[in-house]
Amino acid sequence: MAPRVSVVSYGVGNIQSVLNACRRIGAEARQATTGDELAAQSPQRIILPGVGAIGAALAALRERGLEHGLAERVDSGVPFLGICVGMQMLAETCEEFGEHRGLGWIPGHVGRLAPRGERRPVPHIGWNTVELTRPDDPVLRPIDGKDMYFVHSYAMSCPAEFALATTDYGGTFVSAVRRDHIVGVQFHPEKSSALGDALLRAFVA
Questions:
Q1: Which of 81, 151, 166, 177 has the smallest set of CB atoms within 10 Å of its CB?
Q2: What is the pLDDT at residue 98?
Q3: At what angle do helices 193-204 and 16-24 cross, to 10 degrees?
Q4: Cα–Cα distance between 18 and 50 in angstroms, integer?
Q5: What residues pair up with 32 in beta bridges, in sequence order?
Q6: Which domain CATH number covers 41?
């Protein structure tokens, strides 16, 4: 039986590519637009995508009752995957057009990328290598040392124990985090072809 996956939609950005990717690997994926809808779906996995400004994303999430709904499900042990801004929202504080309170699930802060040395544009757009700090991680193991697709101007800083992967872009930044059954990735699996499918397949498994 296909695992039930709830893809959280809070009205900021298009989540159709994430839904399509989940269905492509055989998952039963549905969007959840409110905290009540998320609870009613009783998901076995939760994915929180995100694009755009993190302050607007956090505000929209809270307006729809999704912060509480997510906390209830994740606290009960449902595996969680945050993608791009969905990973950044896991931090305690987030800096973008002001300071914002994150979900606080990962101790850390989100700040603007500041590449050093040779001229590198921000946002960081395109394929780049993901190096795992824990190569045996069951979700990210398929993509260790491989290139994944990034689109972002901000990145999370967190204690080493939560940094699951790093990427170099004029300096090293954290490109994936984990805390127990909570995983976040800065890149976009749904835009990373077969490797992205392999990561999503490992997550829903």
A1: 151
A2: 85
A3: 70
A4: 10
A5: 8
A6: 3.40.50.880
Biggest CA–CA distance in the chain, Å, is: 51
pLDDT at residue 96 in the model: 85
How far is Cα of residue 196 from the mean position of the Cα atoms in its chain? 13
Domain hosting residue 26, numbered range? 4-204
Q: Residue 70: enclosing H or E segment and its boundaries? A: helix 66-75
Q: Is the dihedral of CA 204, 156, 89, 186 positive or negative?
A: negative
Token pair recorded at residue 182 = 């909570």
pTM, to two decimals:
0.96
Q: Cα(57)–Cα(37) distance, rounded to whole angstroms?
A: 18
- Check residue 78 and give its pLDDT: 97
Q: Which residues are catalytic?
A: 84, 188, 190
| Per-residue model confidence as pLDDT tens digits over 130-156 | 999 999 999 999 999 999 999 999 999
For 155-186, write each residue's pLDDT tens digit. 999 999 999 999 999 999 999 999 999 999 99
Specify the number of domains making up the chain: 1
